[in-house]
Each structure stands twice: as C-alpha cells, then as structure tokens.
Design a protein that fits this description.
The chain has 64 residues and is mainly α. The protein has a single domain, classed as Malate/L-lactate/L-sulpholactate dehydrogenase, four-helix barrel (Hypothetical Oxidoreductase Yiak, Chain: A, domain 1). Helix 1 packs antiparallel against helix 2. The longest helix has 16 residues.
Length: 64
C-alpha cells in the first residue's frame, strides 16, 4: 500500500477543490479538515468525500 504524507495530500485535495470552483479559503480549510479526519481514522469523513464535494461544486456552477 502506498502512503502519501499529510502535506502532499492536503495540497492535492485543495487543488482538486479549486479546480472545480471552490473559493481559495474554503478549499484550503476543507482540504485541511478532510486530511485531519483521515489522520484521525475517520475515513468516511476524509478525502474520500472529494468526489461528492466536486459534484456539489459542479451543480452550483451550473446554476450561477
């Protein structure tokens, strides 16, 4: 199994959220929270949520 350090995972998560239209501050804080959840063993609330968040961002961008 491959491991990604927390800083790299946070940057990757933030970039993904930014790419789909999240505001910079929201993307940064969300990425930190998701990685923190994973680090605490709460995978159901971690970076696995990014596809769902991206889907929400896409829906919002269609209605703006």
């Amino acid at each position: 199994m491959a491991f990604i350090d927390a800083a790299t995972l946070t940057r990757t998560a933030e970039r993904a959220l930014l790419a789909y239209g999240a505001h910079a501050e929201a993307a940064a804080s969300t990425a930190r929270a998701l990685v923190m959840a994973d680090r605490q063993g709460l995978a159901s609330h971690g970076v696995s949520r990014i596809p769902q968040y991206v889907s929400h961002l896409q829906l919002v961008s269609r209605h703006v």
